[in-house]
Structure to design on (504 residues):
């Protein structure tokens, strides 16, 4: 992480220059921010009327309902996408062409077209049976399932070949090799990408706003259509999304520190056959995701 | 299928808009993202904070919300512009944070010995970055930047909800008139996006092979 190799440790003169330049840069940014705030203020964006609604418990309830709907859609989509991603990844890794080719086609197309196009088409095709919620969740599932399939595949492929060869030599079946040997070790490589994909999913639920699913952003629309305070409302909603997503990424960093960075050391510590003994504990990790 | 043939002009025009948005926003985002990456590795702490703050805020905000804020916020600041300009601004503001992270990750792949050697030769921070670190980092940056560009191509679809009839907007419009033609229209437009994606990744592979040869 350290980029300090790019410059020498500062001497007294450089420290002075750094301090002055920092103050100038900071002042420049503050001036820019001040200009924005001043413009918004002169347009009455900071008047009490604009912000009053957020102290109203009814409005707070509307926002909470929106957060709930967003989290609900994201959680359901993530669970389904992990399942679909696993299926597609196994399909692509399969030795049977009949499984491999269709899986590859689904993965490559679902990743190459805009999620919004997919959702719109689903919503327009099945307005009754799917509805906005179904179109949103199904669209998110298809897209993220395809992305996760590649993440899973890369994770499985990152396990050294010797591992699966050894498993076959020991007489394990393909299924056993996958679940007992490859998955437990591959998960470590998948975890960071998996959790950052969760953040992407949470953000993409905002597309529900366009296909009229009442999630957080739509709650915001209901508020600013009533009070005509679009700038304050969008800022509040943005703050909520940022808090939601940074807590999710925080969780990712925590998990990574807990399982990924510590993982390999443990494997080398219990080298040899004991490495497979560690597996059940890490399959447990999969269950807690 | 005749719906597609009858409306091929509309569809092509939609993809023209999509491409135009992608190229213009891509250029602006590349410049802005490079600047942000330089801010994030600069020796001045406040500049680093600005870079980090920008990336944290923008990366965690849904693009639809960025669009809402830009489309409605710019006029409040007294800056007027067409829908196209505002869509470009929204897309570049959002994409720049991803460009920044790709470039920064590329800079971190340059072996520290390179920067140390440059410093030992008496180069300043600016010379070090410009002559030694960036040229080597840019090679490592081609694949992640390609993903960012493809993501941008797909993200231009969101401009559809804010009054631009690019490719996804064409689907929305055509299906209103020809409700029964949803599947062929969807397939045609999806095929267009897949084709554009292939073109971008093909070009990227070409650039990659060239840069690897020159090493």
């Amino acid at each position: 992480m350290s980029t300090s190799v790019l410059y020498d440790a500062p001497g007294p003169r450089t420290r002075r220059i750094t301090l002055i330049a920092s103050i100038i840069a900071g002042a420049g940014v503050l001036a820019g921010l001040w200009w924005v705030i001043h413009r918004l203020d002169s347009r009455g964006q900071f008047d009490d009327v604009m912000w009053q609604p957020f102290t109203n418990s009814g409005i707070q309830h509307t926002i909470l309902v929106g957060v709930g709907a967003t989290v609900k859609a994201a959680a359901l989509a993530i669970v389904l996408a992990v399942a679909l991603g696993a299926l597609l990844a196994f399909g692509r890794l399969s030795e049977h062409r009949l499984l491999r080719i269709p899986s590859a086609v689904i993965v490559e197309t679902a990743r190459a077209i805009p999620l919004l196009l997919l959702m719109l088409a689903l919503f327009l095709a099945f307005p009754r049976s799917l509805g906005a919620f179904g179109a949103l969740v199904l669209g998110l599932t298809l897209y993220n399932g395809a992305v996760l399939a590649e993440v899973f595949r890369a994770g499985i492929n990152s396990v050294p070949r010797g591992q699966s060869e050894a498993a076959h030599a020991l007489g394990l079946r393909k299924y056993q090799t996958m679940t007992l040997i490859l998955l437990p070790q591959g998960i470590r490589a998948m975890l960071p990408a998996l959790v950052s994909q969760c953040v992407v999913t949470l953000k993409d639920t905002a597309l529900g706003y366009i296909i009229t699913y009442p999630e957080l952003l739509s709650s915001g629309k209901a508020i600013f259509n009533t009070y005509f305070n679009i700038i304050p409302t969008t800022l509040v909603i943005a703050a909520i999304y940022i808090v939601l997503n940074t807590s999710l990424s925080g969780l990712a960093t925590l998990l990574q520190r807990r399982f990924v960075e510590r993982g390999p050391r443990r494997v080398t510590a219990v080298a040899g056959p004991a490495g497979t003994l560690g597996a059940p504990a890490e399959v447990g990790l999969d269950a807690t995701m | 299928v005749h719906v597609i043939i009858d409306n091929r002009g509309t569809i092509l025009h939609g993809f023209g808009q999509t491409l135009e948005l992608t190229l213009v926003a891509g250029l602006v985002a590349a410049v802005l993202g490079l600047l942000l990456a330089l801010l994030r590795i600069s020796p001045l702490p406040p500049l680093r904070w600005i870079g980090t703050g920008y990336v944290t805020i923008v990366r965690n905000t849904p693009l639809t919300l960025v669009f809402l804020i830009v489309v409605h916020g710019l006029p409040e600041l007294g800056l007027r512009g067409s829908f196209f300009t505002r869509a470009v601004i929204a897309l570049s503001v959002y994409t720049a944070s991803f460009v920044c992270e790709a470039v920064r990750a590329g800079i971190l792949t340059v072996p520290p010995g390179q920067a140390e050697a440059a410093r030992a030769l008496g180069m300043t921070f600016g010379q070090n970055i410009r002559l030694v670190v960036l040229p080597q980092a840019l090679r490592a940056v081609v694949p992640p930047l390609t993903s960012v560009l493809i993501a941008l191509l797909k993200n231009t679809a969101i401009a559809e909800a804010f009054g631009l009839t690019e490719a996804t907007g064409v689907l929305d419009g055509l299906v209103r008139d020809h409700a029964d033609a949803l599947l062929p229209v969807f397939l045609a437009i999806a095929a267009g996006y897949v084709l554009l994606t292939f073109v971008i990744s093909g070009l990227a592979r070409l650039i990659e092979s060239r840069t690897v040869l020159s090493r």
Chain B touches chain A through 56 residues (CB under 8 Å). Residues 121 and 128 of chain B are 10 Å apart (CA to CA). DSSP finds nine helices and no strands in chain B.
